[in-house]
From TrEMBL:
Name recorded for this polypeptide: Phosphate ABC transporter ATP-binding protein
Organism ancestry: Bacteria, Pseudomonadati, Chlorobiota, Chlorobiia, Chlorobiales
Family matches, as SUPFAM superfamilies: P-loop containing nucleoside triphosphate hydrolases
Annotated source species: Candidatus Thermochlorobacter aerophilus
CDD domains xrefs: ABC_PstB_phosphate_transporter
Ranges in a coiled coil: none
UniProt entry tagged with the keyword Hydrolase: yes
Residue ranges constituting the ABC transporter domain according to the UniProt record: 51-294
EC number: 3.6.3.27
Length: 299
């Protein structure tokens, strides 16, 4: 099931940067362009498993309560997976567990495996700085560094080292283009990133994550602090970048999950209740609990 030959060709890198970085709408509606979006999806080959979560159980050492129970889930290269579920069900914990970002702040206890390209990310031999470069993260609240726009995007590249100025310029431009921010900032790359609007800051954080060429981008409610136009921009860029990148996005907005994702995972109380193609989850869910949640019978 897992491609064992893949990761071997990936360059090993020196440390990479770490980021620290609701609209509730219970009526799931597909965008008018659904048929167009779905035909695009059909053209993509989503067969290769990039990430496989195998009987994964998680607790924070401080509380001893089990937060994630026996999660089994795979993610295919190039797809967009949405994670939905009530507050406190463990969505953020699951996301953070994938690139072990919680270990920056808290000791944790895990059982089971999270396999990335055939390697368990919890294997003691894993270099977490490389892991976090391969699995980038964008947080709910935009968290640019108090540096210039250019330096924010180039931050990870400088940590990795070995890039010429010309190479960095090229990657900074490409990442800002991919994050749909280039046109708005190309004439002020040396100005402080904190002067950007919230929506621009979030796209800058996406550009910063993209600059080090991650294979997977984890997004924890990336639009919940943004206005509808900025939200639309982020959804559009996910739509454009899927295929090239793999996205796992936690969202409270079920319309957003329906619009952007190929598959949707519904979690409750630390358990994965249902994981199916998004259209199925929102039109004909397998589990009664999923239907009750989607129809707003509980929150
Ligand atoms: N650092 C922590 N230490 C102890 N418990 C935590 C910590 N962070 C989250 N939790 C608990 O883990 C559970 C899942 O939280 P979380 O993953 O943030 O849920 P969600 O993102 O779905 O709202 C909650 O019960 C929460 O209280
Ligand atoms: Mg959360």
């Amino acid at each position: 099931m897992l491609p064992n030959d893949a990761g071997t060709s990936k360059p090993k890198a020196t440390p990479v940067f770490r980021e620290e970085s609701q609209q509730t709408d219970n009526t799931p509606v597909f965008r008018d362009s659904t048929s167009e979006v779905h035909s695009q999806k059909e053209q993509r080959t989503l067969t290769e498993v990039i990430l496989s979560i195998e009987k994964f159980t998680f607790s924070y050492a401080s509380s001893k309560t089990t937060v994630l129970h026996n999660i089994v889930m795979d993610v295919k290269r190039g797809e967009v997976v949405a994670i939905i579920g009530p507050s406190g069900c463990g969505k953020s914990t699951l996301l953070k567990a994938i690139n072990r970002i919680h270990e920056v702040s808290y000791p944790v206890h895990v059982e089971g495996k999270i396999m990335l390209w055939g390697e368990n990310v919890y294997d003691p031999k894993v270099d977490v700085s490389v892991l976090r470069r391969r699995v980038g993260m964008v947080f709910q609240k935009p968290n640019p560094f108090p540096k210039s726009i250019y330096d924010n995007v180039a931050y990870g590249l400088k940590l990795i080292g070995g890039y010429t100025k010309a190479q960095m310029d090229e990657i900074v431009e490409r990442s800002l283009q991919q994050a749909a921010l280039w046109d708005e900032v190309k004439d002020r790359l040396q100005t402080n990133a904190l002067g950007l609007s919230g929506g621009q800051q979030q796209r800058l954080c996406i550009a910063r994550a993209l600059a080090t060429s991650p294979e997977i981008l984890l997004m924890d409610e990336p639009c919940s602090a943004l206005d509808p136009i900025s939200t639309q921009r982020i959804e559009d860029l996910i739509d454009q970048l899927k295929g090239e990148y793999t996205f796992i996005i936690v969202t409270h907005n079920m319309q957003q999950a329906a619009r952007v994702s190929d598959r949707t995972a519904f979690m409750m109380q630390g358990r994965l209740i249902e994981y199916n193609p998004t259209e199925k989850v929102f039109t004909k869910p397998e589990q009664q609990l999923t239907e009750d949640y989607i129809l707003g019978r509980f929150g």
